[in-house]
Amino acid sequence: MRQHYNLDRLVDYSLDEIPDTTMVINPAYRAADGLVRKLVAKHSRALAQFASLHLDESIEPEHVATYELKKSKSLEAVQGLEGEIIKEKQARKEIKKHIPIKQLPEEERFKRLAQPRKHFLDTIKMIAYRAETAMANILQQTKLKPDEQRGFLRSIYQLEADLIPNYDEKTLTINLHHLANHASDKALQILCDEFNETNTIFPGSSLKVIYKLGSFENHRDPVL
């Protein structure tokens, strides 16, 4: 549906106010959480650095002293970060994670994209998609493969047709033009037969819709 029906496409850029009682992430909590994450990442790097320190030289007093000094400083850095992490986690725990949007500072307030029009159009797209799915199910009785069915239907959407009203018989014939080959025509005829069994009335009229496959012939009533 995203690919062929633009399900997630924005339909407008108008904004709506958000109700004051809507709960949102507290900016103070977000900042505190971000600091904790940075410290944890820094601690992981310091710990890795500590673990990578090895005495590669000979066991001479000056070499051992240098190694122990580096190891000691690295350990101090690790332990210092651990203390900071504990401190900041405790500070984060004292901050509410969610607050009503009305408690946000004015500069932190935001609006949301308008929803009613998008919901309405998404509903239409869902109906269209389900209709297409129903037609694809009808095509299972044809020689079309499952991965070809929707492509075949999309080609029909682009197909030219003649609209032929007959007000005496109260019909509206939709005369579809032939496709590229006999197999496609046969599949389209199956769809036409299924549609005709529904006895659908064209919206806003009393004309029954009749789907027909074949070349257009002259009729008494004008072509719309």
Adjacency order of strands in the biggest sheet: 5-6-7
The counted number of beta strands is 7
Mean pLDDT: 82
Taking pLDDT < 50 over at least 5 consecutive residues as the criterion, the unreliable ranges are 218-224
Beta-strand residue percentage? 5-15%
Reported for the largest beta sheet, the result is: 3 strands, mixed
Which structural class do you get from the secondary structure elements? alpha+beta
Instruction: Return the string of H and E elements.
Output: HEEHHEEHHEEHE
Number of domains: 3
First-last Cα distance: 32 Å
Kindly state the percentage of residues in helix.
40-55%
Radius of gyration (CA) equals: 35 Å
Structural commentary:
- This protein has helices at residues 2-5, 27-52, 61-93, 116-138, 146-157, 182-196; strands at 15-16, 23-25, 98-100, 112-113, 161-166, 171-176, 208-213.
- It has 224 residues and is an alpha+beta fold.
- It folds into three domains: 1-17 and 115-157; 19-110; 159-224, Alpha-Beta Plaits (2-Layer Sandwich).
- It has a three-stranded mixed sheet.
- It starts with a helix and ends in an 11-residue tail after the last strand.
